[in-house]
């Protein structure tokens, strides 16, 4: 398959870990553990396809409401995931980044994440963005607070508020909006993922549960995307 140069940013809502575990007669946490293989495939395939940004919805602002034991397990898994994979990711020139209220993470995973971001900060390959303690509404709220602060201190005036000035106050203003957002497990919702940035994203839903999601499924999603005519509310964008 030809590298699709139009596919710059892929967002994935990794859903269905719990149902995967139940269908195998296992505890929910086993589903989260099994998610790692799917993450590997996604990172590898996106890298091969010349995708520049891959955002994985790993933990939402709402996920803090899950049972404490599950939250602790996911946080521990995050830390061990980074520890286990950092050498490989760095060797493959992957730049690890994060989006969300990451200061809310426990200190262990947070320092592992910060070390990984520092270590891979100048890598020029795939930007692997982990959305952690991320919520689209929280992101917009935080941007509004920044804008209000900038008005209070006189840096800007109300008339300076534009879509661009709001975009520039999102968590990762240098990252282009996602071209496609993929959600696994048959659910057809955004669930507070990249609300501002997804205005014109193509949405792709699959019944495959995240732990079963492999490169061939991503290939299918990219092929589907390639066949869509992208429109931005004006004229056909010429593909
Ligand atoms: C959705 O499945 C999954 C989550 C809310 C957590 C995702 C966490 C990981 C993939 C592991 C940690 C992250 C990294 C980067 C190692 P669900 O539990 O909502 O499944 P269900 O809808 O079937 O119950």
Structure description:
There is one protein chain. The protein is of the alpha/beta class and 239 residues long. The chain has one domain: Decaprenyl diphosphate synthase-like (Undecaprenyl pyrophosphate synthetase, 3-Layer(aba) Sandwich). It has a six-stranded parallel beta sheet with strand order 3-4-2-1-5-6, with helices on both faces. Farnesyl diphosphate binds next to helix 1, helix 2, strand 2 and helix 3.
The number of distinct β-strands equals 6
Uncertain stretches: none
Q: Look at the helices and sheets and give the structural class.
A: alpha/beta
* CATH architecture assignment: 3-Layer(aba) Sandwich
CATH-level-4 superfamily name: Decaprenyl diphosphate synthase-like
The radius of gyration over CA amounts to 18 Å
Strand arrangement, major sheet: 3-4-2-1-5-6
């Amino acid at each position: 398959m030809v590298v699709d140069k139009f596919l710059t940013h892929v967002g994935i809502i990794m859903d269905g870990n719990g149902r995967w575990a139940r269908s195998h007669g296992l505890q929910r946490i086993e589903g989260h553990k099994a998610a790692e293989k799917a993450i590997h495939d996604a990172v590898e395939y996106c890298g091969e396809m010349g995708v520049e940004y891959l955002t994985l919805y790993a933990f939402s602002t709402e996920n803090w409401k899950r049972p404490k034991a599950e939250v602790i397990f996911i946080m521990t898994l995050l830390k061990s995931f980074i520890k286990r994979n950092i050498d490989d990711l760095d060797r493959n020139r992957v730049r690890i980044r994060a989006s969300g209220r990451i200061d809310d993470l426990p200190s262990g995973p947070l320092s592992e994440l910060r070390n990984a971001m520092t270590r891979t900060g100048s890598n020029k390959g795939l930007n692997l963005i982990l959305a952690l303690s991320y919520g689209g509404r929280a992101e917009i709220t935080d941007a509004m607070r920044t804008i209000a602060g900038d008005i209070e201190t006189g840096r800007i005036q109300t008339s300076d508020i534009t879509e661009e000035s709001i975009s520039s106050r999102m968590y990762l203003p240098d990252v282009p909006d996602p071209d496609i957002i993929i959600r696994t497990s048959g659910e057809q919702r955004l669930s507070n993922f990249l609300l501002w940035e997804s205005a014109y994203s193509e949405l792709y839903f699959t019944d495959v549960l995240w732990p079963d999601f492999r490169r061939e499924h991503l290939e299918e999603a990219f092929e589907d995307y390639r066949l869509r005519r992208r429109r931005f509310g004006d004229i056909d964008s010429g593909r």
